[in-house]
Amino acid sequence: MTSAREGAETPIPATLNVALLACAMSAGAGALWLASRAETWPVRLLAAGVFSFVNNTVFSLLHEATHGVLHPQRKVNDWLGRVAATFFPTSFTMQRAFHLNHHRNNRTALEQFDYFRPGDNRFLKRAQWYSILTGIYWFFVPVGAVLFALFPGLLHRLRGTGTRYGEQTGADAYLGRLEAAPGGAIRGEVLLAALVQAGLVVGLDLSVTGWGVCYAAFAVNWSALQYADHAWSPLHVRDGAWDLRVAAPVRWLFLNYHYHRAHHRHPHVPWLYLGRYVQPDVERPSFLRVWLSMWRGPRPLPVSVEER
């Protein structure tokens, strides 16, 4: 929790956040338009690359909203979160439930995707691992949101309650959170996301290729960071993350998301101030080094590591 003093010293940059959200979504729409209009693949790929970064800015603001630090007024915070979620696209309520569950379970047995634990199905572990690295992981988020909105009863079948599958993948713990989530809100947010995406396609006359290459690039870019900031880190709920070193312009576009250990230790501190909480005496590997090491696959769980 953030102390009263910490909160006073790190006020939510509401005006800046709203401006960034508007700019990033506009830039993303422009990149989608250019990718659909480009006559050559180099231009199309350049547009996709731009989209992959500015849509991560949108996602970082969505991440702020899940912690209630996008805007100081709760209703405004949540509506801005819903708007940001449409560009992922997903449900804000669903994203918040999953992300806060991640903070509760970080680096516990439910979230050790980088290690082979005794009894793990190694094929399933590797499939899950490489789906993260290749961006397939992103695909399951919007598809899962739509499936939940249309067929909420599927949760019971997919959770794998009491099975090794449910424990190893974290499906039981994460999908279980949705059973207590407001289904009506999730369905409304999924509909909003669908309407926004349809509006982009129709209003900007987007092509399937242009839309697809942009979201494929975003999927890979987004997925890469989603576990590079945890891979091989200490098995500790708060300290089990890295404050990764990365080129400053990239870190700015991701709104300091690479300062992930600082975020896990101070989850209610807005992105603008996370640099203050990066401890210089703690190891800070480079993003590239961790990401490249991940391609070698999960490792055996170190016997010397004590879980907390």
TrEMBL record:
PROSITE patterns: PROKAR_LIPOPROTEIN (PS51257). Pfam families: FA_desaturase. The keyword Membrane applies. This is Fatty acid desaturase family protein. Keywords: Membrane, Transmembrane, Transmembrane helix. Residues 40-277 form the Fatty acid desaturase domain. GO terms for biological process: lipid metabolic process. The chain crosses the membrane at residues 12-34, 41-62, 129-155. InterPro entries: FA_desaturase_dom.
